[in-house]
Amino acid sequence: MADKHPTLKVERGDITTYAVDAIVNAANEALAPGGGVCGAIHRAAGAELAQACARIGSCPTGEARLTPGFRLPARFVIHAVGPVWRGGTAGEDRLLERCYRSIAAIARSESFGTLAVPAISTGIFGFPSQRAAGIAMNTLADALDGTDTFVTFVAFAVDSERDLSAALAALRRPLTSSN
Predict the structure, then answer these.
(1) Which residues pair with 176 in a beta bridge?
(2) How many structural domains are present in the chain?
(3) Whole-model pTM above 0.90?
């Protein structure tokens, strides 16, 4: 039996349109509808998503929670809370890595074969895009090693797409990459 490795791909698009096992929401600790990716996901999923999140209550930074996708083409939403950037001295790298490991743990436990993931913490949370991209790629490649999960990193902006693509190219591990 051949070793399994995740397939990682980067593209620019609208994460709410992906028909995958799960999309990842760049959530806030209250799991409340917000702006950016979070707001777009909540609008596309419908009011049921906010109700499901309210039942969960909250999610600490560095962790993730799972809900159905409701009106989204994705079956599920993994709500992941990344850190707010505070200059790099408040453990932000470690918290962002924990966030991506939490996403991978849910994907593994639910046997998800396909994921669509945004650049967590890089919007209103202010995490530097290039730094976040490296953490995202390395952490998910490592945490999903041994699976054949297909991960699409979905960038909303050109800068994010560039940084994610550069991080993917810099990975030095056996995995399949798709451009």
Answers:
(1) 7
(2) 1
(3) yes
